[in-house]
Amino acid sequence: MQTIEFRAKVKNGIIHIPARFKGKVAEDVQVILVSKGEQKSQPDIIDELMAHPLKVKGFKPLTRDEAHARE
Question: Taking the mean position of all CA atoms in its chain, how far away is CA 50?
Fold first, then answer.
């Protein structure tokens, strides 16, 4: 195993390997990230929907019995 170190910007969750290393990198790699700063985490989609539920005309939530009914 070889170690290659470089700095990169993360764009849309993707880290691009610099061209000078592309011929030296195998398909299977181990990645260790060291972030220079802490970014505010984005809220989980479930947390976001719980805080701001979608309003759908005519929607009626299931009762507890309906949710647990087995057919």
Answer: 19
